[in-house]
Amino acid sequence: QVQLVESGGGLVQAGGSLRLSCAASGRTFSNYAVGWFRQAPGEERKFVAAISWSGGSTYYADSVEGRFTISRDNAKNTVYLQMNSLHPEDTAVYYCAADRTTAQHLSVKWRTYALDAWGQGTLVTVSS
Description:
Layout: E1 3-7, E2 10-13, E3 18-25, E4 33-39, E5 46-51, E6 58-60, E7 68-73, E8 78-83, E9 92-99, H1 103-109, E10 117-118, E11 122-127
Parallel strand pairs: 2-11
Antiparallel strand pairs: 1-3, 3-8, 4-5, 4-9, 5-6, 7-8, 9-10, 9-11
């Protein structure tokens, strides 16, 4: 089984940028699609972005399309989420998750079954 650790969260002003990292260990990471999800205080967890095992396919929530970019480096067993033009409403705990499926399936079906692995989350706070 793969284990995931997120990093890169912090406090940033509105309009600023952050890059989150999701580092994997354990099984062959390149077999997994990976998604980023976020949960704001008092709200349910929501999908943010997903990337296929090869990096060739990506999917985004409408709320982050054009501002966030997901990418991966399988040689480093790491997936990234570059977040630009941050808004206060982007404030949340960000989680990465991995599953042996397609990125499209992960992006739309993630609530319906237990994914292979979740990280512990990293907090992003955007001040106005």
